[in-house]
Amino acid sequence: MIRRVEDLDLRDKTVFLRVDFNVPIEQGRITETHRIESALPTIRLILDRAKKLVVASHLGRPDGKVVPKYSLRPVCDHLEQSLKRPVLLAPDCIGPEVERMVQDPNQRVVLLENLRFHKEEEKNDAAFSKALASLADVYIDDAFGAAHRAHASISGMAAFFKQKGAGLLLHKELDYLSRLLSTSEKPFVTILGGAKVSDKIGVIRNLLPKVTTLLIGGGMAYTFLKAKGIDIGKSLVEANKVSLAKELLAQAAERGVSTLLPVDHLTGDSERKNPTVCIGNIPADRIGLDIGPQTVAQFSQELKQARMVLWNGPVGLFEVEPYSKGSQALAQTLAAGYPDLVSVIAGGDTVAAVTAAGVAAKITHLSTGGGATLEFLEGKELPGIKALEETP
Ligand code: AMP
Questions:
Q1: 100 counts as catalytic
Q2: Which CATH number fits the domain 183-377, given the four candidates 1.10.10.10, 3.40.50.1260, 2.40.50.100, 1.10.260.40?
């Protein structure tokens, strides 16, 4: 049993809220705020009910050292604007100065500085967990994007609290993702894309018994096409995964899952220039960089008939024009099915592709998890979820 933030008694309490504010920042500007916006409902609920809120997150990979470019300062500024109230950024996440700030009766919201400035965070160090826990009375975890990490603020520190639970976002993520794994709503279509087959093997294996149709695009499709004897030119390929790809296709066929691979491609030259559509085989000097128009039409046909869709990984090199076309077209098809179609988009790149297509509001759920979502869909137990479990 995992308690929900709304069921805990927060009156007169100081609440420690672990969030995932690991957002992309370029030259001090946050370029994608989805993760911050997604945690705001929990923050507002706690502020309505509790005495004080201590917010903590990691950002980037400073590897246990203070690295100024990984400071949470831009996040603090954004949070202040969103909440329309002062948020104090502590100079560190533990220590006497931080304790003083948290205890100051004039401060209601304190954001701790990047947890990963201490190497003890990723080592799940017990003394570090205890020091973090000493700052508050109640522990709430809303950091779904980091739930697959056995780190101090996610896994270790929960044990120090009598009252602990999941934030609204964590609950929402678990609700949608569990629904995908237990769904009887058919047809259930999964779109898999992105660069690598190796990241998605576990997900494919776990989802095969559940899905009706598997649509494979992106860089990973070329390993599957090679397995089918199709020429892929200079496209991305994982040569050591070709026989595994063959095996996965055979398993899908055995289970009656229809698997669609691209039948045409938008290809580029070695500089990714001169985009040209190739049908079937790709010439030796060209790179497959997006699904072609016939594939878009075939995939869209499947999506139009679906009742539930999971999408992880863009179907093309969407950051470079014009290779975003395929991902944009699929995003539009999903949006056209809203609200009857349940669509779940997982992974930062796919969320970015859907947002760029301007249809984010017409997707049922944009997951804040990348690795965490994949591990959940693989059927693995996530340390961040385990830490919140209590026996009723
Ligand atoms: P992943 O992290 O495995 O989901 O991969 C996401 C990345 O795959 C994005 O940066 C995409 O641009 C990239 N990608 C998608 N399709 C292709 C492709 N056909 N060739 C090269 N990269 C691709």
A1: no
A2: 3.40.50.1260
